[in-house]
């Protein structure tokens, strides 16, 4: 057991924790990062499976993610554009498959008008929100006590339109059924991305990828920090007191006890209860954490000898609110002759998928891919399912959100420090919420607060 003394100890070596550590070190403060996993990167992870290199976790960069883009530049990491030439595919509720171009799904004129009206309404609501303070929205309580599912149906009687718009938030982002989170949470998701229009534009939100993988962001920062990153060392206890000289805190982990002036919890809220706090956290924190939870999604990787869909003039992009696979994209790696598709199965559909045997699940999922891109999609040479719900130190995806009524009730307190304890993760971000960009922003924001207090 190592006994270490530092200015700041950080729990979690994902992009937020590593960004905080990097900024603190640059300001001349000493840091130690303790990480439960055997790797850095948190919910970003690149690995080789059956000979295929895959982005198992978060991976995309959009043009508005300036904190992440700036960090990529500083670290010398390059990006490349997602392949998107050719037609997209929409599978309607009745199973009809239609090729199309542009952002709008090929739906009836009535459904298109309903979708446009819903987008316009959500853009207006998001425009009235400060993503730093979603609980201060003029309609905060009203929007927070109704589910997004039911709110959509107060706005439109077109079921296909409601399900399609719901897909962008429920399946594509929060990975929870639309009846499980509030309309305010949905508006906040849109506000954090700049608008709901940005969320429905896959060419914007899924613009670029990092050469070598998004995990490389954390790997590069870990290389700078060297032995100050301690892996395979879950934090078990945070013990602190206030003395005449200020706070003194000890973090007891499996491999090290770190004594410091401040501690940063850079893990998602659903993992806070894996740590014992001495003294106990305040009542408000305990209650708040019980109203935050991660969603559930299967990220499916299907690798083929070639990106065969391109020969047919297809981009590899497909959408369907009714399919088992709700979204599919060309996820071919930089300079890779093989073709890779990535598909997403969210919330209740993911629940269903895991009632199946592995063989039957693969059969139904690849059949759904084939519905989008043709029979060759049913026969990948490598197939892998990213299931963050069973990953011990994550337990869900992509990020925590509040249950009904939770955001306006507790959101203003989610960043309130408890003595020397600060909170920092993408789940608590304003801009870039639940994206790597939000994790970086939170790490830099938290570091700036601590530098002001300690440097």
Largest sheet properties: 7 strands, mixed
The CATH topology of the largest domain corresponds to FAD/NAD(P)-binding domain
Radius of gyration: 22 Å
Low-confidence runs of at least 5 consecutive residues? none
Please tell me about this protein's structure:
This is Flavin monoamine oxidase family protein. Residues 16-450 form the Amine oxidase domain. Belongs to the flavin monoamine oxidase family. Keywords: Oxidoreductase. Its cofactor is FAD. With 455 residues, the chain is α/β, with parallel strands linked by helices. The protein has 3 domains: 2-42 and 214-281 and 418-454, FAD/NAD(P)-binding domain, CATH 3.50.50.60; 46-84 and 205-210 and 296-390, Alpha-Beta Complex (Polyamine Oxidase, Chain A, domain 2), CATH 3.90.660.10; 109-199, Guanine Nucleotide Dissociation Inhibitor, domain 1, CATH 1.10.405.10. Helix content is 34%, strand content 24%. It is built from 15 helices and 24 strands. The chain has helices at 15-26, 66-75, 109-127, 140-144, 148-155, 159-174, 183-192, 196-200, 202-205, 215-225, 283-289, 347-353, 358-373, 406-410, 436-454, and strands spanning 2-5, 8-11, 31-34, 46-49, 52-55, 60-61, 79-81, 87-91, 97-100, 208-210, 229-230, 235-243, 246-253, 256-260, 262-265, 276-278, 292-294, 297-304, 314-319, 327-330, 339-346, 382-387, 400-402, 421-423. Strands 9-8-19-20-21-18-22 form a 7-stranded mixed β-sheet. The chain has a 5-stranded mixed β-sheet with strand order 1-14-13-12-16, with no helix packed on it. A 5-stranded parallel β-sheet has the order 11-3-2-15-24, with helices on one face. α1 (15-26) packs parallel to α15 (436-454), α5 (148-155) packs antiparallel against α6 and α5 (148-155) crosses α7. The radius of gyration is 22 Å and the shape is globular. 52% of the residues are buried.
């Amino acid at each position: 057991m190592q006994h270490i003394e530092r200015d700041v100890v950080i729990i979690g070596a994902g992009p937020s924790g590593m960004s905080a550590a990097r900024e603190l070190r640059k300001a001349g403060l000493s840091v130690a990062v303790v990480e439960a996993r055997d790797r850095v990167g948190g919910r970003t992870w690149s690995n080789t499976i059956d000979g295929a290199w895959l982005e198992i976790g978060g991976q995309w960069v959009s043009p508005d993610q300036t904190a992440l883009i700036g960090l990529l530049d500083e670290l010398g990491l390059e990006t490349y554009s997602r392949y998107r030439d050719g037609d997209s595919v929409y599978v309607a509720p009745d199973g009809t498959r239609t090729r199309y171009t542009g952002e709008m799904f090929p739906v009836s004129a009535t459904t298109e008008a309903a979708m446009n009206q819903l987008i316009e309404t959500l853009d207006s609501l998001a425009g009235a929100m400060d993503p730093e303070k979603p609980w201060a929205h003029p309609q905060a309580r009203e929007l927070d006590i109704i589910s997004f599912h039911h709110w959509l149906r107060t706005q439109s009687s077109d079921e296909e339109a409601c399900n399609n718009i719901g897909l962008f938030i429920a399946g594509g982002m929060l990975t929870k059924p639309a009846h499980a989170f509030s309309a305010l949470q949905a508006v906040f998701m849109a506000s954090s991305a700049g608008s709901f229009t940005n969320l429905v534009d896959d060419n914007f939100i899924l613009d670029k990828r990092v050469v070598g993988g998004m995990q490389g962001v954390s790997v590069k920062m870990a290389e700078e920090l060297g032995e100050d990153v301690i892996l395979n060392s879950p934090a078990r206890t945070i013990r602190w007191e206030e003395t005449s000289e200020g706070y003194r805190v000890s973090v007891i982990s499996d491999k090290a006890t770190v004594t410091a002036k401040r501690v940063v919890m850079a893990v998602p809220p659903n993992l806070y209860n894996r740590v014992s706090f001495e003294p106990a956290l305040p009542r408000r924190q305990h209650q708040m954490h019980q109203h935050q939870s991660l969603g559930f999604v299967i990220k499916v990787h299907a690798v083929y000898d070639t990106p065969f869909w391109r020969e047919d003039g297809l981009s590899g992009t497909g959408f369907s609110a009714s399919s088992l696979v709700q979204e599919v994209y060309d996820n071919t790696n930089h300079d890779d002759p093989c073709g890779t598709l990535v598909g997403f199965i969210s919330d209740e559909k993911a629940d269903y998928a895991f009632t199946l045997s592995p063989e039957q699940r693969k059969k139904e999922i690849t059949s759904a891919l084939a519905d989008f891109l043709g029979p060759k999609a049913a026969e990948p040479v490598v197939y892998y399912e990213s299931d963050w719900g069973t990953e011990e130190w994550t337990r869900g995806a992509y990020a925590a959100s509040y249950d009904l009524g939770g955001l306006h009730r507790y959101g203003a307190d989610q960043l309130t420090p408890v003595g020397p304890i600060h909170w920092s993760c993408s789940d608590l971000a304003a801009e870039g919420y639940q994206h790597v960009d939000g994790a970086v922003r939170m790490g830099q924001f938290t570091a700036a607060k601590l530098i002001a207090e300690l440097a």
